[in-house]
Every structure is written in structure tokens, then in C-alpha cells.
Amino acid sequence: MSFLENIREALRSISGNLLRTILTALIVSIGLMALVGILTAIDAMRSSIGDTFASLGANAFEIKAKGYSNRFRRGGVQGKQYPALSYLQASLYKKELSRREPSAVVGLSAFISGATEIKANGQKTNPNMQVVAGDENYLRIQSYTLTQGRTFSPAELQTGANVAIIGQEMKDKLFPSQSPVGQYIYSLGRRFQVVGLLEKSGSTMGGSGADRLLLVPLETGNQLPRQGALTYDVKTATTTASALAFLQSQATGVMRAVRHDRLGQEDSFDIESPDSLTGELDSLTGKVQVGGGLVAFITLLGASIALMNIMLVSVTERTREIGIRKALGATSRQVRLQFLIEAIVICVMGGSLGILLGIGMGNGVAVLAGSKSFLVPWLWVGVGLTICVTVGLLAGSYPAGKAAALDPIESLRYE
Length: 415
Fold this sequence. Notes:
Blueprint: H1 3-16, H2 18-56, E1 60-65, E2 73-74, E3 77-78, H3 87-100, E4 105-116, E5 119-120, E6 123-124, E7 129-134, H4 138-142, E8 146-149, H5 154-159, E9 163-166, H6 168-174, E10 184-187, E11 190-198, E12 213-217, H7 218-223, E13 232-237, H8 244-259, E14 269-272, H9 274-317, H10 319-327, H11 332-368, H12 378-404, H13 408-413
Parallel strand pairs: 7-12, 9-11
Antiparallel strand pairs: 1-13, 1-14, 2-3, 4-7, 4-13, 5-6, 8-11, 9-12, 10-11
Helix pairs in contact: 1-11, 2-9, 2-11, 2-12, 3-8, 9-11, 9-12, 11-12
Family: Belongs to the ABC-4 integral membrane protein family.
GO molecular function, one term: transmembrane transporter activity
Membrane topology: Multi-pass membrane protein
């Protein structure tokens, strides 16, 4: 029999035992759905997180006070918490680094409020708007683009004028049928004139990007009412990727001097770059992938046992048929190949369904997490199909060997 004839014979046998074949194929489907679904969701969310990292800039890094925003632990021991970056320290760092490296772009910003209500024209937004104070480099560092209006002028930045740049969600709520530029809004007890409108960014991993952002000059942010001292974010970028490592070393020296870190003392700050964040993400997702692979392995092990049982039953039920085939000249190798192909066909049918369900499930989970991308993980599709064939070979080897070893005379006598 040719290879295609063996496949046709396998399909004929499968149609004769349709119910138990479907049940076995479903077990294989569940295993591969778990594997491909988990890996697809991870890849899709990683892609979305990568887009978030890109807002920082591929050639940029951020400096934060060590242990201030997250009190990390090492070996179960709480790490030392250093004071937050002050406005004076951030300004000195920007001035000194810009002097040493004219190609460096340093942006300073401060988070003012994350649950703010904006009012205008008798309307008000939901109380979930974010107010941030930034300098002249903030939009460039964050890769935000203006669709209307302008950025802050040097005079507005220096004097702390009551001007603002707003996000698209505020515009849609407060100025749905007119341009917001030149209009006035009210927030945090002050009246601001809108001078610019940010481009719509959409949702990224549950966030809202620039859509809910109210940006004011940095000096204005220092004057706004608040309960505690402001925490300043310092972000540095360069136009050339090759200079990033050198710029980080320069930034470390400047910040140590600004923070008065003594010789031999550890840095009182952390430098976070897309590479370091990606490394942490890779470590976390690697563990999740191992867990997903373990779940899929256990499920596929059960599927292979069920498939082997079905094939053994099939060999018993078709003993007389095997005897007739051998009497007509079929060799043991041909009989073995026929049963192996039948096992592989069952696995590939179930596996194909599992892969399709896994891709849908994985992308569905990623969409619920805020991802916008739809991914087809061709690598995992290939791995899944390879696993299907492997499971079919392993589960079908023993039944196929048993069928090939049957004596044709005894098989013809079987009732």
C-alpha cells in the first residue's frame, strides 16, 4: 500500500469508531490548546509590553531612587530605601550631563495626581485623569505627538504659566465638537489655558497612554497644591544606540556626584532601560512557559495513554482483517505502518484543532489584558504539530508492533 492509501485506510477506520476517536482527539486538543494558548498569550502580551517600553525610547533610560518606588527584597531581607530625587538634584543632573554630553536629551517630570477630575463648558471628565508636570523635553522623551496646538514656550516653562496640553479623552468629553486649543479648563483649583492636544494613543496593557494625560509646565507643577513632596522622574535619551552604554556610565557618575554618594558606597539610585526591563520580563515569562509546558505534557501523556488503549482495542477488533491482509501478501512492515499512520492521523486531527483553539484562546487572554496585536506563533504551531506526530508514533508503536506480529492463520480463525 502507498502512503496515501494508508492515510485513506486510517480515515476509514477512524470513521468506523468515530465516537472514541473524537474523544481521544479532544484529549490531544486540550493538551495542545493549553500549550499553544499559554505561549501565544505570553508572546502577545510581550509584544504589547514591548510597545510600552518603546514609549521610553529604544535608546533611553530612566533614573529612580533605589528602593523608593518598590522596596525590593533580596533573600527575604528588605532592601535599603534611599530618599527620592529632589527637584534640585534632578535639575543639577540635567545641567551637568547636558554640559558633558551635548548629544544627550534629559527630560524631567513629576507625577502630580492620578485621580483628577477636569471641568470645562459645564462638563466634567471621569475622576481618573492624570496630571503630570514636564519640561521642554518631556514630549520628545515619551514619544508623544501633538495633533493640534504647540508645546510650552520657554517663558511659560520658566514662569510657571497656567497652560496645559491635554489628551484625546479629555477633548472628546469636554470639547466634542470644537478645537480645545485656546479654551480653558479647571483642575486642582486652577484655570488652565489649553495650548496643545496630544495624538490618540489608545490602551496599552490596561493603561491609557496619553489619552488621559493633563500636562503642565514643570514649574507650574511645583506650585500646585499637594499633600507631600513631589517625586521627580529623570529620563535620558541619545540619538545613537552605540553611545547608550557610555552615556549610562556618564549618567551614573553625574548622579552619584549630585546625590553625594560616598566612595565605595552603592548607588542610591537605579538605572532602568528597555534592555533591563526586557530581561526581567524574559525571566518571568520563561517560568510561565515552563509551567505551561508541564501542564501540556501531563495532558498529552494522558492523551497518549488513551490513544494507545484505543489502538490496542482496534488491533483486537481487526484481528481477522489483519489475517486476511497477510494472507493476501501484506508484510508485517506494511501492517505496522498502517497502524502507525492511523495513530498519527488521529493525533494530527486533534492537534490541529487544539492549535487553532490555543491561538484563539491565547490572543483572547492577551486582548483582555490590554494587548491590541493578534499573533500567530508559527514557531509554536510547528512545535505543536511535531508533538502530535511524536505522540502518534509513541502511542502507536506498541499496538502496531502487536498487529504486525500476529500469525495470519491464527488471525483468520479469530471470531
